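Letters spell out the chain; the tokens describe the backbone. To illustrate:

===
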Amino acid sequence: MNYLSNIKWSNLLIDGLLSILIGCYFIFFSEVLTKIIILSLGGGLIVGGLIFLLIYYIGKSKNQYNHIYHLTQGLVYLAIGIAIVFKPYLMTDLILYIVAVWLLVSGISQLIYSFRFKKHIGNVLLLRIGAAIFLILGMSIFLSPQDTINTISEIIGVLVVIMGIILLYFGTILYRISKKQTVESAEIITIDEDSKA
């Protein structure tokens, strides 16, 4: 009980509220969130490209051997970053299709493993379920990339909101425990003072 009282109930309540807010953001503003992430990636690549160009400029003045590498990397980063910033949805679709290909390849590989190594693995049900999930997700992205990403974002949002509600619940429990212990401590102090008097 003393251990529970040392845990800050306010931290759990704040984390719970923040989780609910973030979860709601995932549910209701998934497209905006995706765009922010993509634009942040583009901005990061632009900054990285400028840093590499600066390193190239410094290296060139000092006659360093690998300055051409820094120039090439800087220009590539800069070009990709600018393309992402000005065409974010194009990059979003490209990333989604890459993920879709990976999911399909991984799902097929898992199915092959589940049949080929069944003797060694034993129960392959979980492996086949995982393969089915990967294949369904991969095909869903190919058929409707934006709807799939929105659905995944909404599922994440719902899970985060549920976690937030759980944190709020435990936060209120710890709050009640801390209040009860405060009252008990006050009663003990009062009894001690009365006995001394």
Remarks:
- The two ends are 30 Å apart (CA to CA).
- Residues 29 and 150 are 9 Å apart (CA to CA).
- Residues 2-188 form one domain.
- The longest helix spans residues 145-196.
